[in-house]
Specification:
The protein is an alpha/beta fold and 518 residues long. Helix content is 40%, strand content 21%. It folds into two domains: 270 residues, 3-Layer(aba) Sandwich (Rossmann fold), CATH 3.40.50; 165 residues.
Length: 518
């Protein structure tokens, strides 16, 4: 990269013997593997974990790195490689330090794969403090509920008083054997970039793992074809770094050459990576915070709009059937106001959630409404659900307290049944505001007008949310957006907003794939 790194290994004063004293032996061998004794903040009231080694020195230089990648690409090994580099560990020391969770502990593994984890490495003897933010690994299904959980966790982290407010690099971890991106991998890259502000594009780099040191031509081609936005060099080519991923493994003496090669490759590249950090402008997380906030707002907004549209259908059906019944029985009404007629009525019932769509939903037991579905992650306490604000729901009709809600694998659906009605039944429902049978119709029309006004308001709010994301997000072509975009386009056309509908159609067309609504 042309500039001497402030973290050159020759300048490190850290004593590995001292680090060993502050570590637990995992496995003896060549190298001997140790786990650093860290301080863990596992407070369940937080939606992220903080694991630290040492104490932060605010007078020292500090770098913050965000790590993102698919499950199985080797993020954990990369994090530990960075830790060993910071510690000044050399091949001849025959030791390897780890800061990540104990993989033999099932509970720890589950937590690590489902939570955003912050690793802080603050070693007195080194010239730099390091913070690594590790996001959960994306699976093959690109679960949108995990996507929303990452949004919530990162937003809580970035807005916390002692959380990171600047970023130096966003690392997209990729397997060097990629020859093309599958649909799931494409959606994963789109999803990752949809979490970030446009201003961090120059801070995004590619870290290719499981590399033999040769140029990952096929993987680079796949990334370019996927239009992944990242930092580029003077030849306008993506900036990337290669890692072998086995330098921490135990080898027999006759295999030392293999390990030496793995060590040399990874530590040559990690040196270049930290050179990149030195030369790249630090970015604030303000725009990324704004993106995360808009992402978090959009899901409840869509959920509320969907519920509202259902209410309008029910009211329209009630109006039509009431008009038909009154017209049909007009003669009988004039003679006898106690006529009976059959009508189709709506009622709510609960059904199991389709596991292909979501796992759980937050529902109001008072309003019998689905307040957050799909995309609702499994909150320990319902007051933390995305739709709750000041302990009350922002979506259900009565804005009920979170204590009136339940999270389970069921949702409310609307069904119909036939009931007998009398004119007096209709009249009684509106008796405070009607004097004759026409008031029934007028009242229903008034309610529909108010519902239409609220629908317009909700549709415009949702559109402006997507519009804002289009302006500030690095990418709006994510699965999260496409789960809602067809629905929004339809509603914009219904409220006579063709230009806004055309803008969303442009986003959909640009992405090149369509998500069908369930």
């Amino acid at each position: 990269m042309g500039q001497e790194n402030t973290l050159s290994l020759d300048n490190q004063l850290c004593n590995t013997d001292e680090l060993i004293k502050k570590s637990i032996l995992i496995k003896d061998g060549n190298p001997a593997q140790y786990r650093l004794q860290t301080t863990n903040n596992l407070n369940q009231s937080e939606s992220y974990r903080i694991i630290t080694f040492g104490k932060r020195d605010t007078n020292k230089a500090h770098k913050t790195i965000l790590m993102v990648g698919e499950t199985g690409t080797g993020k954990t090994t990369l994090i530990n490689t960075m830790i060993n580099y910071i510690c000044g560990v050399k091949r001849e020391d025959k030791v390897w330090f780890e800061i990540t969770d104990d993989q033999s502990n099932t509970e720890s593994v589950y937590s690590q794969t489902s939570d955003v984890t912050v690793y802080g490495v603050y070693i007195q003897e080194t010239s730099l403090d390091l913070t690594i933010i590790d996001t959960p690994g994306y699976g093959n299904t690109c679960d949108t509920s995990l996507d929303q959980k990452i949004v919530r966790d990162l937003l809580n982290l970035f807005t916390s008083e002692d959380g990171p407010h600047e970023i130096n690099a966003v690392c997209l971890v990729c397997h060097s054997s990629y020859t093309r991106l599958s649909d799931e991998q494409q959606k994963m890259f789109d999803s990752v970039q949809s979490l970030l502000g446009k201003d961090v594009a120059d801070n995004i780099v590619l870290l290719f793992t499981h590399s033999d040191g040769s140029s990952p031509k096929n993987a680079l081609t796949a990334v370019k074809e996927a239009e992944v936005k990242c930092a580029v060099d003077e030849k306008n080519q993506p900036i990337y770094f290669l890692f072998n991923n086995c330098q921490g493994e135990t080898f027999d003496e006759e295999e030392q050459t293999i390990q030496d090669q793995a060590w040399d490759l990874s530590f040559r590249e990690i040196t270049e990576f930290f050179n990149f950090l030195d030369m790249t402008k630090t970015k604030t997380l303000k725009m990324t915070q704004d993106v995360l906030e808009k992402r978090q707002q959009l899901e409840p907004n869509i959920s509320k709009l969907q519920s509202h549209v259902q209410k309008m259908k029910e009211k329209q059906n009630e109006l039509k059937q009431t008009q038909d019944a009154l017209e049909k029985q007009k003669k009988d009404v004039n003679e006898n106001n106690n006529f009976e007629f059959e009508t189709e009525v709506f009622y709510k019932t609960k059904v199991d959630i389709d596991p292909a769509v979501a796992k759980k939903a937050t529902c109001c037991t008072v309003c019998e409404e689905n307040c957050h579905y799909p995309g609702c992650w499994c909150a320990i306490n319902l007051k933390w659900c995305d739709v709750m604000k000041n302990d009350n729901c922002t979506v259900c009709t009565n804005k009920c307290p979170y204590t009136k809600h339940i999270k389970e694998g069921k949702i409310y659906v609307t069904k119909t049944k036939i009931e007998k009605r009398t004119y007096e039944d209709l009249k009684k429902k509106y008796e405070d505001k009607m004097k004759d049978r026409l008031s029934v119709i007028n009242k229903l029309k008034e309610e529909l007008q108010e519902l239409e006004k609220e629908k317009i308001k909700l549709v415009i709010e949702a559109y402006h949310c997507v519009e804002s994301l289009e302006m500030i997000a690095l990418n709006t072509e994510s699965l999260f957006i496409f789960l809602h975009i067809d629905f929004l386009i339809e509603k914009l056309k219904e409220i006579n907003e063709p230009e806004k509908a055309k803008a969303l159609e442009s986003i959909r067309k640009r992405a090149g794939y369509t998500i069908l609504q369930g």
